[in-house]
Amino acid sequence: MKNTPTAESPFVKAAGLLWLVVAIIGVISAIVTAFIPPAVSPDWYSYPYTSAGFRIAELVFVLNHVLLLLGILGLASSGAFGTGLLG
User: pTM higher than 0.90 for the full model?
Assistant: First the structure.
């Protein structure tokens, strides 16, 4: 399969690297959230985090989703899906 010039662009390569970073951040945050000892009772909105820990976790989740969006844009601009309507 021949690569298209768009697939070799710096943005597409950076987007692929961002997806690797997103995967690592996602796995680490899931492990931390799954195995952290609860700091508050289950009826608190920040469970299992403290209020400060919840803010930090949410900032990490926002960063993760922004990087995921950039990765999706890179994948879309790479031409990997083709040029049809569904692509």
Answer: no
Instruction: Say whether the peptide bond before residue 5 is cis (omega within 30 degrees of 0).
Output: no
57 half-sphere exposure, CB direction, 13 A CA radius: 18
CA distance 15 to 78: 10
pLDDT digits (tens, 9 = 90+) for 56-79: 999 999 999 998 998 888 888 887
Structure token digits, residue 74: 């890179």
Q: Do 56 and 39 meet the contact criterion of CB atoms below 8 Å apart?
A: no
Q: Where are the domains of the chain?
A: 7-77
How distant, in Å, are the alpha carbons of 28, 72, 76 from that of 48?
Answer: 16, 30, 36
Give the separation between CA 48 and CA 69, rounded to whole angstroms.
Answer: 27
Structure tokens at 40: 């508050």
> What are the pLDDT digits (tens) for 3-13?
555 667 888 88
